[in-house]
Specification:
Belongs to the tRNA nucleotidyltransferase/poly(A) polymerase family. This is Poly(A) polymerase. It comes from Nostoc minutum NIES-26. Strands 3-4-5-2-1-8-9 form a 7-stranded mixed β-sheet. Strands 6-7 form a two-stranded antiparallel ribbon. A two-stranded parallel ribbon has the order 10-11. It is of the alpha+beta class. It is about 50% helix and about 15% strand. The chain binds adenosine-5'-triphosphate (ATP).
Length: about 425
């Protein structure tokens, strides 16, 4: 229906980007394909085709499919149709854009848009495997448009960028390249790796790491890519490859995936598996916090702010150093379990995990750090779950009048239970 609507207006319609790549990959692997995100591009036959063609087509389609929700993104002249759990489409997201090229007024800025043809539209994309189009309109419906060798790269399992300046224009493409490489088990083609290294060495990360009113969109895209990576099963390999390429500097110039951080990330995973089986925490976000927590204290909150993390994450990273000092200083004075509980229960689970991770790796030279981790582990596994042997109802039955003294009695009972005096 979309192609008929486009054809009626004298336009070409193309399926582009990830859906074409995944169709070709699925063909080869004869695997199941579930595409939930479709990118369509409308291209006029004439130079006069205006930038609003995609929006017009989306509106026409919404008339045909009233169940779809229509969203129009003015600045880029794109529209989206969303089917949410529709009986016909399950859930589906269709983006419709007008063929466009982008020019960058300065590197790492927001792309600006002008009307152009499908070839130029594909040329502005990130990698050859994402820059193919399948024509949906007649004549030659079903034809694959592959101007840059995407199919060959798919066969060769290579991630190849389209042009030398690509990573300077948009450093988040480094993260995208790594994501696709690790996800599909592809290699980043050697010349593309060189372009990445060149972009990093030329300081492209300055624009991703500095608070800069001109680049909030860049920070948003970087965060989106980090989310994609850190919530995928392959997140560790992706971080490793980002580190090999020097690209963790896009988060902060001093960030390195060193032995200590690797160890901390392993501890984090153990904690998440053990203490957050219900997944009440946002795991990708805690992983990102763990990376940021590895930075020197003075950078943490700033980096979290730049990446637009939620307020509680920013506060946690801001307070981590102080909370850690408080715990490491007070813990040696805690002789009884109830005192440990008293100290640790002021912190929530993510903060306790960060504090545990934060204690130095070297166990032999710093016995205090290993004691701290053991105590936190013990607190989370056992002490935090201990309940006083009586509750409020029991006190009532025993004849105590409800009131503020209940809290005190229950606390005393808990202390006695924890310290093994009763129970
Ligand atoms: P996924 O399956 O992970 O969603 P995708 O290729 O569909 O992969 P999207 O982020 O949905 O990824 O992007 C859709 C298409 O838009 C890409 O295939 C690519 O052609 C283009 N694209 C997205 N981000 C960029 C970018 N930063 N630079 C250039 N092209 C991009």
């Amino acid at each position: 229906k979309a192609s008929l609507a486009a054809q009626k207006r004298g336009w070409h319609l193309y399926l582009v980007g990830g859906a074409v790549r995944d169709l070709l990959l699925a063909d080869k692997a004869a695997g199941n394909l579930m595409i939930k995100d479709i990118d369509l591009v409308v291209d006029g036959f004439h130079k006069s085709a205006d930038v609003g063609a995609g929006v017009e087509l989306a509106k026409a389609l919404q008339q045909i499919y009233p169940a779809a929700r229509l969203e129009i993104h003015g600045a880029f002249q794109t529209a989206a149709l969303l089917w949410h759990k529709d009986p016909e489409f399950d859930s589906l997201w269709v983006d419709i854009a007008t063929a466009r090229t982008e020019f960058y007024p300065y590197p790492a800025a927001n792309p600006e848009v002008e009307a152009s043809s499908i070839r130029q539209d594909l040329y502005r994309r990130d990698f050859t495997i994402n820059a193919m189009a399948l024509r949906l309109t007649s004549p030659r419906a079903g034809e694959l448009l592959d101007f840059f060798g995407g199919l060959l790269d798919l066969q060769a399992k290579q991630i190849r960028v389209l042009h030398a300046n690509s990573f300077i224009e948009d450093p988040t493409r480094i993260y995208r390249g790594v994501r696709f490489a690790v996800r599909f088990g592809f290699e980043i083609e050697p010349q593309t790796k060189e372009y990445i290294r060149y972009a990093i060495n030329s300081g492209v990360y300055d624009r991703t790491t500095q608070e800069n009113s001109r680049t909030p969109a860049l920070q948003t895209r970087l965060k989106a890519e980090l989310k994609h990576i850190l919530e995928a099963l392959y997140w560790k390999s992706a971080l490793q490859l980002l580190d090999d390429l020097g690209a963790l500097q896009c988060i902060h110039p001093t960030l390195k995936l060193d032995r200590e951080l690797l160890w901390q990330l392993r501890l984090l995973e153990r904690c998440l598996q053990r203490f957050d089986q219900q997944q009440t925490l946002v795991h990708w976000q805690i992983r990102l916090e763990a990376l940021i927590a590895h930075l020197a204290p003075e950078y943490r909150a700033k980096v979290a702010q730049n990446l637009q993390l939620p307020e509680d994450s920013i506060a946690r990273l801001k307070n981590l150093a102080q909370s850690f000092s408080q715990v490491i200083e007070s813990l040696p004075n805690c002789q009884r379990p109830s005192q440990v509980v008293q100290l640790l229960r002021q912190f929530n689970l993510p903060m306790l995990i960060l504090i545990a991770m934060h204690s130095p790796l070297c166990l032999t030279t710093n016995g205090c750090a290993s004691t701290l981790r053991r105590q936190i582990w013990h607190y989370l596994t056992i002490w935090a779950n201990v309940q006083p042997i009586l509750n409020g109802n029991d006190l009532k039955k025993l004849g105590y009048k409800p009131g503020p003294q209940y809290r005190q009695i229950l606390d005393d009972l808990l202390t006695a239970t924890l310290d093994g005096l009763i129970g």
